[in-house]
Amino acid sequence: MAQKQEPLLIKRYASRRLYNTETSDYVTLDDIAGFIRDGREVQIIDLKSGDDLTRQYLLQIVAEHESRGESVLPVDVLTDLVRSYTTQANSVVPQFLAASFEMLRDGQSKMMENFGAMGNPMAQMPGFEAMQAQQEAFMKAMMSGFPGGAASSDDDEAEKPEAGSKDELDAIKKQLAELQKKLSGLG
């Protein structure tokens, strides 16, 4: 079993500059977002007070992505999040969101393991390689904005659907349902 890596410690100086303690250099919010996309946990601490500022900076990274048009969170979800702050004592939203993202990450890794495993009997099925490539492109597109998700690359640009296209997403859902139906018929 893989050993869990310690979070990357980032110290915020009084000048508000962020210092990477591993590489001994200053970093930006984009750098921190890159560390997270690469699967690294980060912890941001105020040097003077010792306060943990991680949540504040992660929210700032999300807000910057949303403001640049890289929308991941629909307005309904954002509205519900704002509402959850007014009813925080009884809110199940934080637990629900944490469980949902955990399930999404687990599902993605299990799916990729199953489809990438050598000797997989499904690999003999006609069209398997095309289906696998399509699912990988779908998962990359879906996970590109989530912590721990795959970063998009220019090579995959032609294969992945537009992030905001509901029609593309509906088409992919329909294709996945058809593939699941075919796979259940094989068993």
Layout of helices and strands, plus pairs?
Layout: E1 8-12, E2 18-20, E3 25-27, H1 29-37, E4 42-46, H2 54-67, H3 75-86, H4 93-116, H5 128-143, H6 166-186
Parallel strand pairs: 1-4
Antiparallel strand pairs: 1-2, 2-3
Describe, in plain words, how this protein is organized in 3D.
With 187 residues, this protein is of the alpha+beta class. The chain contains six helices and four strands; from the N terminus they run βββαβααααα. It has helices at 29-37, 54-67, 75-86, 93-116, 128-143, 166-186; strands spanning 8-12, 18-20, 25-27, 42-46. A four-stranded mixed β-sheet has the order 3-2-1-4. Strand 1 (8-12) and strand 2 (18-20) form a beta hairpin. The two termini are 32 Å apart.
